Amino acid sequence: MLNFKDKRVLVTGHSGMIGKELSLILNSLGAIVVGADLYNFVDLRYFNNCLKVSENIDYAFLLMGVKGSPKMTKERPVDFFVPMLQCNTNSLEACRINKVKKVVYTSSIAVLNPQTDVFPAFAKTTAEMQIDAYKIQYPEFGQNCFIVRPANVYGRFDNFDNLNAMVVTSLVRKSILDDKIEVWGDGSETREFISAVDVAKGMILTMDKSPDKPVNLGAGETHSIKELAEILSEVSGKPIVYNFQEKKGDQNRVVFNDPNQADIGFKATENFKDSIIDVYNNAKLYYGDKI
Questions:
Q1: pLDDT value, residue 120
Q2: SS3 for 205-260, per residue?
Q3: What does the pLDDT read at residue 22?
Q4: Comparing 26-35, 157-166, 241-250, which segment has the lowest mean pLDDT?
Q5: Count of CB atoms within 10 A of residue 279's CB?
Q6: Which architecture, in CATH terms, is 8-290?
Q7: Spatial distance between the Cα atoms of 61 and 14, rounded to a whole number of angstroms
Q8: 3 to each of 9, 58, 207, 281, how far by Cα in Å?
Q9: Given this model, what pLDDT does residue 204 score?
Q10: In this predicted structure, what is the pLDDT of residue 41?
Q11: In CA terms, which of 193, 206, 230, 244 is 20 to 30 Å from 268?
Q12: 211-250: b or e for each residue (b if 16 or more CB lie within 10 Å)?
């Protein structure tokens, strides 16, 4: 395992769902975590800020992203596309200039199926191509940049106030604040969900193994929206109501079998039901008196 003790480790997007889990693990390994976000702490849209925050950094995990549902990215694509391009481009180039030893860039499974979320997928693909360009022109840096593509991530540190959040967060919020758990469609759609804890562990493993191809981080199993709702109904005591008037999402969205992906021996370890209940319990504590 790569030695993180007393190493200065940059985590962009560190206050997000994956970033918080990653920072906790890195702290436990003795790392000195330097956090940066899009608007808070350090505004990564500006190149000089990226240069400053990556000074004297040993390792970097670039997680910054703009979260939202596919519906939101279709309605307000600029809000997602532009800041992601700015932050990705600036952060990677600043790490090159400051000679960061190893970088893990968090892409998305959307790059394998871009029609599901076109603008974020293109922004992520552009950053992957930037890394490919470094491998050609600046191989001493580019060969030490690694790409991970997480599946549908959920976690206890997500933004539960985001009304346009992904399905796990949305249904968790409904199970706490509403008198019913409303599911759009019949709930038959399946997703390859993965916990933020497993993603964080997979990112550290990727940096340690230094693969020469992208790593697709999935749990290796799929679950339906109906199964998710039933877990939340069981723990909350709230009934499930299926709304057939609302449009449901893609029927199946999983990590695709990609012949170009690297095999680093990653295995997700979090139990789906147990981790969903953990997310629910943490969200319930978050809402507190609002319930």
A1: 83
A2: HHHHHCCCCCEEECCCCCEEHHHHHHHHHHHHCCCEEEECCCCCCCCEECCCCCCC
A3: 98
A4: 241-250
A5: 23
A6: 3-Layer(aba) Sandwich (3.40)
A7: 9
A8: 11, 11, 11, 33
A9: 98
A10: 67
A11: 230
A12: beebbbbbbeebbebbbbbbbbbebbebebebeeeeebbe
What pLDDT does residue 249 have?
57
**Alpha-carbon 244 to chain mean position:** 29
Predicted TM-score of the model (pTM): 0.91
The rounded distance, in Å, linking the Cα atoms of 43 and 12 is 10
- The per-residue b/e assignment along 124-141, b for 16 or more CB within 10 angstroms, e otherwise, is bbebbebbeebeeeeeeb
For residue 291, pLDDT beyond 80:
no
Query: Can you give the length of the chain in residues?
Result: 291
One-letter amino acid of 132: D
CA distance 184 to 229: 11
Whether residue 189 contacts residue 262, with contact meaning beta carbons closer than 8 Å, is answered with no
Question: Which pairing describes strands 181-184 and 8-12: parallel, antiparallel, or unpaired?
Answer: unpaired
The Cα 159–Cα 291 span in angstroms is 16
Checking if the pLDDT of 235 tops 80, the result is yes
Contact yes or no for 12/88 (Cβ under 8 A): no
Residue corresponding to tokens 């206050």: 15
Parse the chain into domains and list their residue ranges.
8-290
CA atoms of 41 and 67, how far apart (whole Å) = 18
